[in-house]
Amino acid sequence: PLVLGVESTCDETGIALVRGHELLVDRTASSMDQHARYGGIIPEIASRAHLESFLPALEDALATAGVELSEIDAIACSAGPGLIGSLTVGNCGAKTLASALGKPLYGVNHVVGHLAVDQLVDGPFPDRFIGLIVSGGHSNLLLVNDIATDIVELGGTLDDAAGEAFDKVGRLLGLPYPGGPHVDRHGQAGRCDAIKFPRGLSAPKYQEKHRYDFSFSGLKTSVARYIEGLNQQGMELPVDDICASFSEAVNDSLTAKTVQACLDHDIDTIVIGGGFSANSRLRELLSERAAAAGLTVRMPPLRYCTDNGAQIAALGANLVAAGVEPSDWGFSPDSSMPLEVTHI
Ligand code: ATP
Ligand code: FE
Ligand code: MG
Fold this sequence. Notes:
Its EC number is 2.3.1.234. This protein is 42% helix and 19% strand. By secondary structure, it is α/β, with parallel strands linked by helices. The chain starts with a strand and ends in a 23-residue tail after the last helix.
């Protein structure tokens, strides 16, 4: 079946077409340029941008794929989690299309979509895998028994998400918003053992209750104190070393617990997803540690790490294939959709 995917959780309007695990087209329009000067996403601006981009992106996608609207078999839209205004615009567009075409509509979980997109590149998923979702809003470990119907949340961050922590450290260092990619780039030029920063929830006493949880706010405070200290002494900031050492602390926690989750559950495959899964040190360290433990890591190419329509179409295709009931016409977007809920 041919599935149209509509993404609109935040600042990206994504439209994509997927047939099975084959991606026909993926179009993204971002309003990030309009938010950057505010140092954060302005929801009203994001909603308006979705309204402006939706139809042009749709027309462009259909023309590029050489597909007529009537050929679409099902429509999937991100129903949450995300900004309610942004979601509402995308969901209205998707509902209108589905009702006019008389096709089933699936309101899907955007975050689960971050994992689903990997199938479009690396093929069908194994029976079970450990999913590491790392993005601007999430840092979670999932036990995925079936991407369409059976996801168990093993743990997640108690405070900041990995991308959020990177963005905050970027701000402390005066780097442009969003800081994540800039901190990553500076870190590549620095020494990861230059400064000793703490690893949250790694002490043995946390091994029971917080075995699969993360905490990055203490680390962020520790980076802030380090910067303050140097500023007070009028010393120049070793930006590259700070970024490398901070990045190492975040990625040490993420990768250690991901490998641990595999060993604990006798699972041999890891799938990563979300904007932060573009992080160079995460990809490097996870590859090393997984290989050492005899595990396979599946990492989507960088263009599918940040928000896109392909992830929504991919998850929609999984739901159709699993024979899941379409969503009720009257559904509302859910800004805090739980991770174990794949669709609304
Ligand atoms: P969610 O998916 O949880 O709803 P989101 O959609 O806002 O959150 P994404 O768009 O998936 O998040 O990811 C954006 C985040 O990824 C930002 O915090 C950004 O700084 C971060 N990011 C992107 N590339 C990198 C990188 N190379 N290194 C570190 N962080 C990065
Ligand atoms: Fe996202
Ligand atoms: Mg985004």
